[in-house]
Design brief:
By secondary structure, the protein is α/β, with parallel strands linked by helices. It is built from twelve helices and twelve strands. Strand 6, helix 8 and strand 7 form a beta-alpha-beta unit.
Length: 341
């Protein structure tokens, strides 16, 4: 047998992976394409494998790449990665795919991406929390479907699943405004990649819509301990405080809240505070944190749904999905007192 799978693919006008799918009795190929490729394979002496039952077979492996740079934002939610992975794994198992997870730092990224051609996954789900969108070509150069999670890659041609950071932040500011707060400060992350850029944009747009100027804007690292330490340094100057703070995420909110309480600021009696993410820390701090809930499992499931569409239909168009967020009212926001607004 002199002819190769690559040559069969060229004759059929499809990719080599499509020929491999047909040869091995795997789904994900349209009826007409399968018929054409099957005829060419049989004509050239290939023995096609019998497809196993849906209950017994796995159609392929999907690679979940958990990329980290500083590690700050990836760890901002205690349970964020766990739930995204659980959602993705659940959806993949229902579709009879397996999932392989790898943690990748900046130094190993190119090597891992290059090695995918030997692993030959059906597709890639890439955790892009700390990934600079301008480097998107590292991902689009892969000869396989790729979906990014937790970074919208706005303005760049890559499929992405993110939470609705802008509208979620607007909803947080709206809630504070409805509670009578007009002096609203901003606890802004020192790391402004991915979703946090969107939250910053949403916060300033919401404040501007109400004719408000955020004061003060305090830059804090997205880790509880260091956020607390930096907030303590700020409070040591005895600055005037607003009636409420919006924090870029729950970790920053929790760190700032510890510093405020330590300085004798009562929450929410003296100052209200709202976070974003609804991470585990939001429900274990005292008082429990009012925040914006993101749907992590659903993000993982959405990523798989889009990936399978790309695998099955060979879609070439770009979709960007924003999963909605909801306000979770707990104990850290109170009605602004008369005279404080």
């Amino acid at each position: 047998m002199d002819i190769t799978i690559k040559e069969i693919a060229e004759m059929a006008g499809v990719s080599p992976s499509t020929v491999s799918f047909v040869l091995n009795g795997r789904p994900g190929v349209g009826k007409q394409t399968r018929k054409r490729v099957t005829a060419l394979l049989e004509e050239n002496g290939f023995q096609l494998k019998q497809a196993a039952s849906a209950e017994d077979v796995h159609w392929g492996m999907v690679k979940f790449i958990r990329y980290y740079d500083s590690g700050d934002l990836v760890e901002r939610n205690d349970d964020f990665i766990t739930q995204v992975v659980e959602g993705a794994d659940f959806a993949l198992r229902r579709a009879h795919y397996t999932m392989s997870i790898v943690n990748v730092g900046e130094e190993e990224l190119k090597q891992v991406l290059s090695g995918l051609k030997y692993e030959n996954p059906a597709g890639v789900i890439f955790l892009g929390t700390e990934f600079q969108a301008q480097r998107y070509q590292l991902l689009t150069s892969l000869d396989m479907p790729v979906v990014v999670v937790d970074n919208c890659f706005r303005g760049y041609p890559i499929n992405a699943i993110d939470m609705d950071n802008i509208d979620g932040t607007r909803e947080a500011v709206k809630y504070l405004y409805q509670k009578g707060h007009r002096k609203i400060g901003y606890l802004k992350s020192t790391n402004q990649t991915g979703s946090l850029q969107e939250r910053s944009r949403g916060f300033y747009e919401a404040m501007d819509g109400y004719g408000l100027v955020p004061e003060p804007v305090i830059h804090l690292p997205p880790r509880v301990t260091t956020a607390k330490e930096e907030m303590e340094l700020y409070l040591d100057q005895s600055p005037p405080l607003p009636t409420a703070f919006f924090a870029d995420n729950d970790v920053i909110a929790a760190g700032a809240m510890r510093a405020l309480l330590q300085k004798g600021v009562r929450i929410p009696e003296d100052l209200s505070l709202i976070g974003f993410d609804d991470s585990l820390i939001a429900s274990v701090v005292t008082p429990m944190l009012t925040t914006m809930r993101i749907y992590k499992r659903e993000m993982g499931m959405c990523a798989v749904r889009r990936l399978l569409e790309m695998i099955t239909n060979k879609d070439t168009f770009i979709t960007k999905t924003s999963v909605g967020v909801d306000l979770v009212v707990r104990e850290t926001v109170a009605q602004a007192r008369d005279g404080d607004t």
